Amino acid sequence: MEVEGPKANEVLVRNVATGVCHTDAYTLSGADPEGVFPAILGHEGGAVVEDVGKDVTTVKPGDHVIPLYRAECGQCKLCRSPKTNLCLATRPTQGKGLLLDGTTRFSKEGQTIHHFMGTSTFSEYTVLPEISVAKIDPNAPLDKVCLLGCGITTGIGAVCNTARVQPGSTVAVFGLGAGDRS
């Protein structure tokens, strides 16, 4: 597998830890309508920045980061809204297995290999847009914080947005895994 280095506004990271989410299995099954193959799956990770492209200002080599499959450009209508983070700029390419410039950084023997959810954390090395990484405390254990990329944020989203739990509420949580999509 070849991984091209980062272009402008991109970051090359070394994935140290990754979670395995039901979404990865669902896509691998072929049932996901946005599943593009061949691809490198994985979207929950704890990583270390190895290299940065031109104009990257928020991270540097050696920084610890969490890859974000739900990146935000910060400029579009939805990113500026306090109601959602479903970025209009990142979504069109992400569902096609591409980075923001419409290309990939993975190949094998000349064949294009697609990205998954903009992150591809099952690869030891992956390239992401700068807006797709969140810098974290270097003392935070990467094998634990990798779950922040999806599993924990999905649960918090359900609590805050679906159940609308308020401060002081008592809550019971049943089950801590992904549901069956069959």
Structure description:
The protein has 182 residues and is of the alpha+beta class. It has a single domain, classed as Medium-chain alcohol dehydrogenases, catalytic domain (Quinone Oxidoreductase, Chain A, domain 1, Alpha-Beta Complex). It is built from 4 helices and 8 strands; from the N terminus they run E-E-H-E-E-H-E-E-E-E-H-H. The chain has helices at residues 22-28, 91-94, 142-145, 151-162, and strands at 2-3, 10-19, 44-52, 64-67, 106-108, 111-113, 125-129, 133-136. Strands 7-2-3-4-8 form a 5-stranded antiparallel sheet. The protein has a 3-stranded antiparallel sheet with strand order 1-5-6, with no helix packed on it. Strand 5 and strand 6 (111-113) form a beta hairpin. The mean pLDDT is 90.
